[in-house]
Every structure is written in C-alpha cells, then in structure tokens.
Specification:
The structure is a homodimer of 302-residue chains. Chain A is α/β, with parallel strands linked by helices and 302 residues long. In chain A, 36% of the residues lie in helices and 24% in strands. The first copy, chain A, has a nine-stranded mixed beta sheet, with helices on both faces. In chain A, a hairpin with a 2-residue loop joins strand 2 and strand 3. In chain A, helix 8 runs antiparallel to helix 9 and helix 9 crosses helix 10. The radius of gyration of chain A is 18 Å and the shape is globular. At the A-B interface, helix 7, strand 13, helix 9 and helix 10 of A face helix 7, strand 13, helix 9 and helix 10 of B.
Chain lengths: 302, 302
C-alpha cells in the first residue's frame, strides 16, 4: 500500500569527530522516504528552493519516490548546520535557516489523496493537523515532533497527537511532553491522549514501544563505525512505516517486525554521512542485518 | 555448585527523589550474595566493624549465605552516603568512610577453598589478585571494578582482568578502561587482554554482552517505580553468577539466560531502598518476571 510523508527536504552541513560535510542532502522527509522506498511506494510532500541540486531529485526518483508533492519555491532551501561530539546521541544545532520552509503550507496533490499510510515528520503541529485533514483515506497515521514544538505549541501538538495512531519520539521528548521523568508513567500519560502505540527512540540504546498493555524493547545495532547519526530517527521511522505499508497490517507481531526493520535501516544510515549509508542497499544486506538483530536478542525460556 | 564472593558489606545512607534512608544494609558483596542466594550456595568474604547490627547477619544467614569468611574487626563498618537526582542512572557520592575496610586483607577460610565459581566485587585490584591466587579450585571467575581503580591502579587492574573469565563493568568504565569511545571497539580491546566474556551494564538501558564474536543485548525491565538504584549492578551480577553456578555451565545459551536472571534480580532491587526489593522473593515472582523479559523482547523472523 502507498505511504505518504510530509516533512522537510534540506541541505545539511554536519561536523562529527570523524569528518565534515557541507550542504549535503538531508531533511526528515528525505531520510524517511529513502528508507521506506525499500519496502513500498512512497509519496513525498515538502518544499525546496531554487538552489536545490537536480541530482538529489534524480536520486529520489531513482528510488521510486513520487515527488509530485515536492514544491519548488523561489528562494533558498531549508538549511541546517550541526555538530556532534564523541557522545553521538545528541546534535548541537549551530544554525537553522528555514528559508522556503518558513512559508510552507503543505498541499496534497489529487494523486496523493488515496494513500493508506501517513507519516507526519517533525514540522509545526498545526501543519501536521492540516495534512491530517487532507489525507482522508489514511487508515494509519504516525507522527514525530521535537522539543521546539513541545515548548512552543503544546496545545496544537496534543491536538495532533489525539488524531494519530502512533507517536514516535525520543526519550527526552517523551519526558518533556508528559511532564514526567519515569518513562513508563510518561508513556501511559501520552497513550491516554489517544494514540494506541508509542515508540520511544533512545539513540544508541534502541527502542521502547508501548502498545496496549505490552512493552517491546529492541536494542540498537552495536556498530564499530558510527559516523553521523543525522537522520537516524527519520530513517528508523521510514523503515518502520515502509514495512507496515508493505504488509498492510498493524497487528502487534507486524508492528514488532517493523520496529526491527526500522532499526536495521537506522543502523545502516549512521555508518556514513548524509544518506550515503542507505542510498543503495541490497535486500540481502537488509535481511542479513535483520537476522543479526534476531541473533543478538535471543535467549531460551526459563 | 558453590559460589564465592569477595567484596564489601556496608552501611549506606541514601537519598533519592522518593525518600531517604540512613545506615541501612548495603555493600557490593551483600547485594551480590543475596541475589545469588536464590540460585545456589553462596560463601561471602568481607569485613564489618563492631557497630554492624546483628539483624543484618541474621538476615544473610536466613538466606543460607555462608558467613564463615566475614571478619568482624575493631572499629566502624564501611559507610557510604550518596544521593540520586531524577536521572537515577548515576549516584553522587557525598561521603565514603572506608573504616575497617581500609586495612582489609581478604583471607579465605579452608571451607571456602573448593568453591567452583568466584566473583571479585569492586575492591582494590591488588586484593582481587590475592583472592584469585587463594581460590585455586575456582573454574570460572568474574570481576567488577570502578573508575576509581581505572584511574589510580590501572596496571594492577589489567593484571587482574587478565586472570578472569568475565569482566562486568558499566559503559562509562568500559570506555575509560579501553581509552576508546566506541563501545564495540572498547569491548574488542578489553577482550584482547584475556577475558572470554565482557558484560557492559547500561543502567536503565540494560546489558550488552560481548562473547567470542557475538553480541547479546538485553533491555532493563521498564518499571513504574524506580526507587533506589543502589546495588543494581551487584544484584545483577549476583543473579547472573548464581544461575551460572546453579547450572554449573558456561556455554553461550546458559550465559544468556544468566544475563536475564541477573536483569530480573536487578529489576526487583531498584523497586525499594537497600535490599528490601530482594529480601524475600518467591520463585514464582522470579519466574514471572523472566517470562516478562521473554515477552518484551520477542519478534518473529523476517
């Protein structure tokens, strides 16, 4: 089934202890759509400026991503500049230029209106709600957010959250959003607002998923080379939602498998700058890493 | 098979956001021996002072712990005072009084010399080596340590590590010991010194175990009530080594199950102050939580 994502397409400049890159392809929708493209048809809604290199569009088209909903506006593309220390879990944002993203009002082209699965990447929660209203046919909706919106637009954000099936955020955001330090209690509070499922991303420590009365814990893949964690969360979400849309199922067993596929895609992503780790993966490589997750977590019953 | 532990028996004063206690039972050997006592016979080597309350000895004897190797010296018992913020992963030490522990030279009573399994809890690495020499019959030895010894007695510590089968430390200590931020590379370096197995404790994020060329990741149990994390690492080690000694096996499948039993015991421990969470558990309660770990981590093959 087809999967729709609304978010950012950006040009990133990133410095890590292992190197640096300038004005490379980035953005939440880009990472999401690329990861998801290994599993299902993806339709993207975002905006870029005059300066956005044609080669990036070619890359996304080459991965089968539908770009009918990608606006090109007059001005500069959204740009983000950040740096990571050896503690790679958290980026320090050095500069954010919203540029054409500042006046972006996502509008779904008619060909997008029948998408069954929807991911609202981290954008203004009011815009997320507008998209939700347009995407009538979506039968399963997930959204992401960030501390900026939790601090500045909490009411609008909670309205959005009430309308989605799944919220995907990191542990600090979950605590901040629920105003509760204990993660189990924070999860219970967030789930009481409406979503059936909450996925908490914990970077190098993996995923905790709360669903009905169950908890699922998945580790991150321990890597010898973590080069650049930018986009890991969106790549996780892309692998996750891509698998869900491919299977067209949202039962607990499928959701758990989707968490592992998301973790697999994120593990490839952090091994290189920009999207280089997930540009061209084989089905075999994805399958082998899924198998590695299985082996890494198995133990016998008591 | 019988299991020997050398470490501290202490009186702790602990403050957490949820309450505080003064001069309660604590110490690495105490937590370890109590957790292990649910699985096998435990022999303890440590020292206490004149002030050590008889009721604590009664408690340990009641759990079947052999105290023939517990010296009572003239002076005060080892005392530790610490505090935790809402970020419960790390204690702030407010005061350490070594007292009778300062001149402690562990000596194994004759009845201990045939113990098959040995745990060297966090004490001076030179003392750990001395114990290792005395415990001739031990066929599988694990040790713990801390940043204090990594900074102050690194050479002696590496000597100890060379002589053990398993090292159990936390992630910060592993990085500091190997002088390497990446945890996979840090693990490889530590394993190159001799131990076949390395267990890295990550507090609320669970365990990473490196063994030969495999990695095993186990989550911590997500709890609504984390009251006091003091002793969680030693309780983990106690459940782990207790199960190993009970089974008298150290094959990979048994070691993985032992990691889960260790995690189960640690999860009970943090639910209350001092040892109150593990004073009196039923086999059923332990079994149910092991089962909860299974359910929390299972996913289907691809």
């Amino acid at each position: 089934m087809s999967l729709l994502v609304v978010g950012s397409v950006a040009l990133d400049s990133v410095k890590t202890p292992f190197g640096q890159v300038d004005s490379v392809l980035g953005g939440s929708a880009t990472y999401f759509a690329t990861a998801a493209s290994y599993f299902t048809d993806v339709k993207l809604v975002a905006v870029v400026g005059d300066d956005f290199p044609e080669c990036h569009l070619e890359f996304m088209k080459g991965r089968g991503i539908d770009l009918s909903g990608l606006e090109r506006s007059h001005g500069q593309t959204f740009r983000w500049r950040g740096e990571y220390g050896y503690q790679l879990n958290e980026a320090q944002t050095l500069e954010t230029q919203l540029n054409v993203f500042q006046t972006f009002r996502p509008k779904l082209p008619p060909s997008y209106l029948n998408a069954s699965y929807l991911f609202l990447a981290n954008i203004d929660p009011s815009l997320q709600s507008e998209v939700l209203k347009q995407a009538d046919a979506a039968k399963w909706v997930a959204c992401d957010t960030m501390n900026f919106w939790i601090e500045g637009k909490k009411e609008a954000l909670i309205q959005t959250i009430k309308g989605v099936d799944l919220l995907v955020i990191n542990d600090g955001e979950a605590r901040q959003l629920a105003e509760e330090h204990n993660l189990v209690k924070a999860a219970q509070r967030i789930l009481s607002w409406g979503p059936k499922t909450l996925i908490i991303k914990r970077g190098e420590y993996g995923i905790l998923m709360f669903h009905a009365d169950t908890v699922f814990a998945a580790p991150a893949y321990p890597l010898e080379t973590v080069f650049d964690p930018t986009g890991a969360g969106d790549t996780f979400a892309g692998g996750f939602m891509g698998y869900i849309a491919q299977q067209d199922r949202t039962d607990p067993a499928t959701i758990r498998k989707a968490v592992i596929y998301g973790s697999v895609m994120a593990s490839f992503n952090v091994e290189a700058f920009s999207l280089d780790g997930i540009r061209n993966l084989s089905r075999d490589a994805i399958g082998r890493r899924y198998q590695a997750f299985s082996e890494m977590t198995q133990f016998e019953p008591q």
